[in-house]
């Protein structure tokens, strides 16, 4: 029997081990790996496709006697719903749930992510346990299906945590620090109403899409989906930044270079500052070909021209290391800088005589003295020129500590003096008595970032808050902050950590900034609507998934284009799905425009919103 093109391509790809995964269900073709190689024009993949005549005729064009691979056509082909329709895909296609691919920078689609469990190290759990499939479910939602998903939401369960306890039934104050529980994309859109063009610094440590970090994306979460996930959030983040704002994004090698191209498009390549390399671990993995010991941090300005004109605003504090006053200069401690500089200048070529030894000095070939002769004479008379410790060397220029402190210290691109993930882990273990997070950032890293980019009372945002390191450091440094996290551990880790900060805990940077405790923060949640259904699905078992399915099938909050008769006619197909795929289907049925209650519906009696929630939400949006 003649094979159709879908079967031909599938069978051809399965002849390469790099595209096959063995699991409980047998052999599985890794579509994400194929897609990635298509985008890279992988030589091995191209050769494989050329080996079959029918495939060659379908996806290659003869241009002036040269075969040209139609990359986009093949990408569309493998993303089509007809290619590899497994039981899950076949079922979602049958009831009308499907997706299509396109170029990332052309997409207006949105990626939402829903955790199936708290991705933290729990008692007895090791890193291998985190490698199981489907920790996160990701859904790409087409732009034409988004109506009011990103509208401002009702804020609920607000509490203010202070040194003397917890305050409830509150209103929002302009100087409040804010922690929000909810999907970060939707929370970012909610913040736009109040904080557009008001955030000075954004730092995020997003999921790396490595399959090994704590988010552990499965093979469905390929480069294109991850980049869409980032694109959605970074576009909103740009709107939140002030004109002199800065964004820092920490990434691994797996996605840093892809994300750089994306951020060039969003923030403008002209606003890129640097890729900062942080030495994140001192340990060596002996089984690796090369032991990875670094993390990338991409840095972009909202407007780089501002900082080119105001360079001293992006500086580290000069700590005085290396400064001394051996000659008791009344101007205080100083450090000797070279008086010779690179580059040839015609007015900076002259002879300097050491007054003690009589030795004559000229600049090296291709170099110059730092100043012209007249300026040199001024500096000499002002006791700013020295000739080494014993007065017997070449000329140097004094740089006084007070001058260095005024100018600040220029940051370098390699940071190996701000702690490692081990420091972050030890700090959290001391706070909570056990390992609760995999590879947390040390407070010293965030301190360096905030020292460079902010001053006291500036607003800092972290919309991938995790254990709360950014918020903790901002609190200790006197910055205002906003943190967003959707995981349930926000209550017993993130909030608890910030409570300890208020109490004056002495880990991390506390001693270096003389932290003694104090301050406050407000915690609130996006008010659940259909998101409550998603939480039920996440916690479902084989014993109750059927009842949950029946409840959802009759719920008015499912996507409007799925017909009830089609749902009821697919009972058998649903029963044959794995538990994980059942969860995927049910989450996909939920109308994502109804995840949370819109602020415009705050007085809708159907939601029975409490008076305290109404009061806090109104105060947030209206400032009263």
From TrEMBL:
SUPFAM superfamilies: S-adenosyl-L-methionine-dependent methyltransferases (SSF53335)
Matching InterPro entries: DNA_methylase_N4/N6 (IPR002941), DNA_methylase_N6_adenine_CS (IPR002052), N4/N6-MTase_EcoPI_Mod-like (IPR002295), RM_Methyltransferase (IPR001091), SAM-dependent_MTases_sf (IPR029063), TypeIII_RM_meth (IPR022221)
Organism: Mycoplasma nasistruthionis
Name the UniProt record assigns to this protein: Site-specific DNA-methyltransferase
Single biological process term from Gene Ontology: methylation
KW Repeat (keyword) present: no
Record carries keyword Nuclease: no
GO MF annotation list: DNA binding; N-methyltransferase activity
A Pfam family: N6_N4_Mtase
Location of the DNA methylase N-4/N-6 domain: 199-495
Family statement drawn from the similarity comment of this UniProt entry: Belongs to the N(4)/N(6)-methyltransferase family.
Keywords: Methyltransferase, S-adenosyl-L-methionine, Transferase
Domain annotation Type III restriction/modification enzyme methylation subunit: ranges: 42-97
């Amino acid at each position: 029997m003649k094979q159709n093109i879908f079967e031909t391509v599938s069978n051809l790809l399965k002849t390469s081990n790099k595209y096959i995964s063995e699991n409980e269900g047998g052999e599985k073709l890794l579509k994400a790996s194929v897609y990635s190689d298509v985008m890279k024009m992988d030589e091995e993949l191209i050769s494989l496709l050329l080996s079959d005549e029918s495939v060659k005729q379908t996806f290659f064009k003869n241009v002036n006697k040269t075969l040209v691979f139609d990359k986009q056509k093949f990408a569309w082909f493998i993303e089509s719903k007809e290619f590899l329709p497994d039981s899950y895909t076949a079922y979602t296609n049958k009831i009308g749930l499907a997706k299509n691919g396109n170029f990332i920078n052309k997409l207006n689609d949105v990626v939402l992510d829903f955790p199936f469990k708290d991705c933290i190290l729990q008692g007895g759990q090791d890193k291998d346990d985190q490698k199981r499939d489907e920790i996160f479910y990701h859904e790409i939602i087409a732009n034409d299906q988004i109506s009011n998903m990103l509208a401002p939401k009702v804020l609920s369960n607000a509490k203010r945590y202070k040194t003397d306890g917890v305050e409830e039934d509150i209103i929002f104050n302009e100087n409040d620090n804010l922690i929000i529980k909810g999907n970060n994309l939707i929370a970012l859109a909610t913040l736009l109403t109040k904080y557009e063009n008001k955030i000075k610094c954004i730092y995020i440590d997003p999921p790396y899409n490595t399959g090994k970090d704590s988010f552990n994306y499965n093979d469905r979460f390929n480069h294109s989906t991850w980049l869409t996930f980032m694109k959605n959030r970074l576009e909103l983040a740009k709107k939140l930044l002030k004109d002199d704002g800065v964004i820092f994004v920490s990434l691994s090698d797996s996605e840093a270079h892809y994300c750089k191209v994306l951020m060039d498009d969003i923030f403008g390549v002209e606003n890129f500052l640097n890729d900062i390399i942080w030495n994140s671990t001192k340990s060596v993995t002996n089984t690796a070909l090369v032991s990875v010991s670094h993390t990338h941090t991409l840095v972009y300005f909202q407007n780089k021209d501002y900082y080119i004109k105001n360079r001293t605003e992006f500086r580290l504090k000069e700590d005085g290391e290396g400064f001394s006053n051996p000659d008791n200069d009344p101007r205080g401690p100083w450090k000797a800088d070279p008086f010779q500089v690179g580059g040839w200048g015609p007015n900076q070529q002259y002879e300097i005589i050491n007054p003690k030894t009589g030795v004559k000095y000229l600049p090296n070939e291709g170099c110059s003295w730092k100043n012209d002769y007249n300026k040199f004479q001024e500096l000499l008379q002002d006791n700013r020129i020295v000739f080494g410790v014993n007065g017997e060397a070449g000329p140097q220029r004094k740089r006084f500590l007070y001058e260095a402190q005024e100018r600040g210290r220029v940051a370098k691109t390699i940071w190996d003096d701000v702690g490692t993930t081990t420091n972050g882990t030890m700090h959290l273990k001391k706070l909570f008595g056990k390992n609760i997070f995999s590879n947390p950032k040390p407070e010293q890293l965030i301190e360096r970032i905030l020292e460079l980019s902010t001053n006291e009372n500036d607003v800092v945002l972290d919309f991938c808050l995790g254990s709360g390191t950014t918020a903790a450091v901002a609190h200790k440094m006197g910055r205002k902050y906003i943190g967003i996290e959707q995981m349930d551990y926000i209550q017993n880790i993130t909030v608890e950590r910030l409570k300890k900060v208020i109490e004056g805990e002495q880990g991390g940077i506390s001693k270096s900034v003389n932290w003694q405790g104090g301050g406050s923060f407000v915690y609130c949640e996006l008010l659940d609507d259909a998101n409550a259904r998603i939480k039920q699905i996440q916690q479902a078992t084989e014993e109750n998934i059927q009842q949950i399915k029946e409840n959802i099938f009759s719920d008015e909050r499912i996507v409007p284009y799925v017909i009830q008769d089609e749902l009821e006619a697919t009972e058998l197909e649903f029963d044959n799905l794995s538990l994980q795929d059942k969860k995927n289907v049910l989450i996909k049925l939920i109308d994502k425009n109804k995840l949370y209650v819109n602020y415009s519906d705050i007085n809708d009696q159907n939601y029975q919103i409490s008076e305290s929630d109404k009061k806090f939400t109104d105060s947030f949006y209206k400032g009263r």
